[in-house]
Give the backbone structure.
Amino acid sequence: MTITRTPAVNLPWNGKMDTRIFLIGFMGSGKSTLGAKLARRIGYQFLDMDQLIEETAEMSIPSIFEEHGEEVFRKWEHDILLELCTREKLVIATGGGAPCHSQIMDLMNSHGTTIYIHLPPEALRDRLIRSRTKRPLIQGKSESELLEFIVSLLQKREVFYKQATHTVDGIKLQTETLVRLLRDS
Ligand code: S3P
């Protein structure tokens, strides 16, 4: 999979930080919103993995799951990550499941800084209910089924998420908190 994107306009950043910042966490944890703000703040380019996959495949994520299946989607996530690890000055919002397969956590940790945006299951449920993004894994679930699903999947995924360089509380998380974390560590 080949990615084409124009670079962001770089604003001056005098701090010392890794050239790739990976935001990881469950669906609905705010990776894309925070990632875009962080990138603007530090003059890095922002890339959203899901968006890159959609643009490259010229299909929406739900259509990819439907037509190609989850396994193919996971392979594309891996391909995209490999390519992103060759680029500089990026803030990357990863898909919620990306860190949990194909040694992607190791790949990201050896090519940059990973930040796990942690939120409790109830907060994730509320955000996912409010979200307009179509997510195949949770489509058609009632509120109680959704909470049950989040609790169970989060438990499995946290094994991977917790390998992140940093874990931050996602409730009321501010861009400046991330900047401070990256600057001071
Ligand atoms: C997924 C999360 C989604 C997207 C796909 C699968 C997951 O990304 O990659 O629907 O497995 O958790 P977001 O975390 O941006 O919603």
Observations:
- The helical segments are 31-42, 49-57, 61-67, 70-84, 104-111, 121-130, 143-161, 175-184.
- The first strand starts at residue 20 and ends at 24.
- The chain has a mean pLDDT of 93.
- The pocket of shikimate-3-phosphate is lined by residues 27, 50, 61, 95-97, 135-137 (CB under 6 Å).
